[in-house]
Structure prediction request, 192 residues.
Amino acid sequence: MDEERALFWKLTEAEHVRARTFCRQLVGSREDGDDLYHDTLVSALTKFVQLRDRSAFRPWLYRIAVNNFKNRVKRSWWRRLVPLSRETEDTVSGGNPDAVHAARRRLKWAFRAITPEECALVVLHEMEGWPIAELARLFGKNEGTVKMRLLRARRKMREAIVKRFYQSTVAPMESAGESEDGLCVAVRPSED
Prediction:
């Protein structure tokens, strides 16, 4: 048993910073993210003996984090907010706090429009840089399914932002620039 624990902590050490950051981004705060990460470690440690393929440790650990997150969301849906990362904030605003606040508000609204699993998928791919193949392994789906789920999640997020923060008109693709879903959206900021 001591050998198993030592191996668990050795494997965890390689993922510690990224997994903790992922949990923080997923729940939207440092304290809650650390709680989620610690719950994930406790769950993972107790289930580690069941993991047959030790090379699958990384996706297995993140799957436990995602499942714990989904369970938390079921208990308290209003806490499912994902903030911008510091790097994204700096590029969005050029240091302007008003732009940072507006971008964060739109992003939080967008994440409310998707399921916890979609939230985890978007955060892992867009913010953590996970490739599609690794996400497919993590979620137990084929790559095409993961790509489609990402596309749908992004679309839901975009529609939520447009609906909430902009008055929009949808035009046929040939009348304006091309978008990934074949629609062009002409937007006008709302008074909100």
User: Anything to note?
Assistant: The chain has two domains: 1-80, 82-165.
